[in-house]
Amino acid sequence: MSDGKPLGFETLSVHAGAQPDPTTGARATPIYQTTAYVFDDVDHAASLFGLQAFGNIYTRI
Q1: How many distinct structural domains can be found in the chain?
Q2: Taking Cα atoms as reference points, which of 31, 40, 24 lies closest to residue 59?
Q3: Would residue 40 count as lying in a domain?
């Protein structure tokens, strides 16, 4: 949506150094509200889910 006016300082600053995503055309990096974690092994996962060890297991809260 361009009306031919040059972009303002604020607009140029917000987008400085960022290129549109070549696949999606997204102007800004999207925020993904999901993730997955890697566990060292089954025992590590069990200790995390059993609250015996500190670490990340869930992030939607």
Answers
A1: 1
A2: 31
A3: yes
Q: Cα–Cα distance between 34 and 39 in angstroms, integer?
A: 17
Q: Please calculate the CA angle 16-22-24 and round it to the nearest 5 degrees.
A: 100
**pLDDT at residue number 16:** 78
Tell me the pLDDT tens digit for each residue of 17-34.
778 888 888 877 777 777
Rg (CA), the chain: 21
Rounded CA separation 36/55 (Å): 13
**Whole-model pTM?**
0.45
Structural domain includes residue 14: no
Residue 9 lies in a domain: no
